[in-house]
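Before going further, learn to read the protein records used in this course. Taken together, the tokens spell out the fold as the letters spell out the chain. A record is reproduced here so that you can trace the correspondence yourselves:

***
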Amino acid sequence: MTRPLFATRFDFRAPGAAPRERQAMFTRALDMVEYAESTGHDAVMLSEHHGSEDGYLPSPLPVAAAFAARTRTIPITVSALIVNLYDPVRLAEDIAVVDLLSGGRVSYVFALGYRPEEYALYRRPWTSRGQDTEAALELVLEALRTQRVDRAGRVGAVTPAPLSRPHPFAYYGGGTPTAARRAARLGLNFQPQIADESLRDLYRAECERLGRRPGHVMMPPPGPATVFCAADPDEFWARYGHHLLADARGYAAWHQSGTALSHVFDRSTTTEELRAVGTYLVDTPDGLIRRCGEGALPVITAHPLCAGMPEEPSWESMRLLGEKVVPAVRENRKPIAENRSAG
């Protein structure tokens, strides 16, 4: 049995937090990503959304650069980057600079997004978002490959060149057949947002039809979407469960139509219900080690700042994972060959 992946995710959602509190969260995140690397975590993930009153991270690239400056080896993923909310040439420039700063450690899941409010905020057309995303990504990828772009017949330079060739490692993300076909056309790897093997098969078939070698497919792993480690899970749920519920309710409010559901979607309305469903898991070190041994946790995704989680429970979870769970699991399981879920 292969060992699980240990990932740490940050989105900086914190309902009601004051600017000074948010500043402290960013400082804590910098310390935590350095700690995650030092204790053997496999990856760090950043998410992006806009116009969210709870302060959800709108600018993942500057944070990725800051994380890269505080670390040396740990991979950093922006998942997902909403392409249509950027100028594609500026996006290519920023990606290239972050690639150089990080030594090629920052990868991307490109996506078109699912919230009309974000498109309205940036005055981007909603109905043509699929075609617009594909056109923008073609421009971004061409700029990163060649350092040249042709916009309306005018050829311009896009510099500097990235370290990663032809461009940083990237997926196209989405949960529809259209997304699978678009990933193949763009020559990108594919990350379905739902565990639907037909999407993986469609992507591979489309790559082959186009005469392209299929890329990597990262299917959503089974198990909880967010994991906390606590000496006393009952006390954790009683004192801090409302943060987990706020996180779940925030996502649920964005998915009311039911058309953009992902494997992490949870309709719970109380902390008791949320705990019973299991999308958010709080367990002791021994409990997590046992689950890993049983193969029940192929990925452990820590979310230490979840919805403004206070400093002590967030650090307790990181330390218990880093000092107890990771070493125990690594001692008893063979290392995996690939730091991404098999497709």
Q: What stands out?
A: The chain is about 45% helix and 15% strand. The first strand starts at residue 5 and ends at 10.
